[in-house]
Structures
1.
Amino acid sequence: LAKTTQPISMDSYEGQEVNITCSHNNIATNDYITWYQQFPSQGPRFIIQGYKTKVTNEVASLFIPADRKSSTLSLPRVSLSDTAVYYCLVGDRVSSGSARQLTFGSGTQLTVLP
Amino acid sequence: GAGVSQSPSNKVTEKGKDVELRCDPISGHTALYWYRQRLGQGLEFLIYFQGNSAPDKSGLPSDRFSAERTGESVSTLTIQRTQQEDSAVYLCASSIQGQPQHFGDGTRLSIL
């Protein structure tokens, strides 16, 4: 069972790039890494998913080194509205149909300051 | 389009009572997940349904917790003889098999 570790909190200023790292030393071969964003009183919202190397979409990039024991979510030019909790999830995409327990990290509270 | 819907949004009940929480997944999503989130904490996996396969119940904390799903539609999470430590937000998510999860906004359960 892959356990994940993230910083509890981070502060940044508007317009800066923010990098949040998640450690997952026991990641399994079939595990993907997914990041979610959560605002108060809402459910988490999908940001990005990857398996290895680098993935980029319209809101973020995800960097995964060759050993896959960590991953880094990169948010370019953050704004005040990016203040939220960010979760790293490691788990099987269950594409095989088998069920696996999914492990969310404890989350990183990102606070963007003006 | 419609997202994952959970009801009620808030539930207050007395210790010892049974509660039933409902989740309506996105149409066509074969996978459904339940999580528990205590105040200020991360998400704790409870149970996973995938199509007609046997559910993965490995995250259920005790035999007071159970969940059912009818086909690929509605799911209910039942907590019997509620305890104060059951107070939390219960989140439901659904997905197409192998794809990222879509979450509802949860049911905030308070046990008095």
2.
Amino acid sequence: QTVVTQEPSFSVSPGGTVTLTCGLSSASVSTSYYPSWYQQTPGQAPRTLIYRTSTRSSGVPDRFSGSILGNKAALTITGAQADDESDYYCMLYMGSGTWVFGGGTKLTVL
Amino acid sequence: QVQLVESGGGVVQPGGSLRLSCAASGFTFSSYAMHWVRQPPGKGLEWVTFVQHHGTTQYYADSVKGRFTVSRDNSKNTLYLQMSSLRPEDTAVYYCAKDENWSADQWGQGTLVTVSS
């Protein structure tokens, strides 16, 4: 069974930079997995930040960026703000018309 | 702007059925594939199903295969999710989302399905 791994939690200081990662239990993540990233605050629907590895969704500020770092997909937040405190999920396309979400990272800004 | 509005959620007994709808506006619905994604209370996101823009090709997560059916009516700009043989573990908020480059792009606000006796 495919497992998509994310850090359960992360902390960043206001104004700081943080990189969240998205890996696979048994393979390296590449652009072929079309990694995407989502932000969700409690009680709200997810908001798409990044799709196709590094393309920002409409209206997403450029302090959010996506990339491949080593064998994982990565979401980097530069100049973290208080309202970036959220849950962040990655999703990978596994082929054969199926997708899998990671377990999510709870980001704290303090 | 893109708007997706889910409806049809509610409380249903185990073994029962329910049909969710997702009304789309603000984009050419017939040109885009669509996803359903769910989120159990207090837990993470789970991809459920995908349907191509023409509606003739669908894919499902193993957890719902054989029990859920996705369909769409492009003339009504509406996406559907027919759920049957429902189980308590199907309890979740169900979101529809517009596909963009093999990702979920725009999302609806979700509709809550509770499976309980």
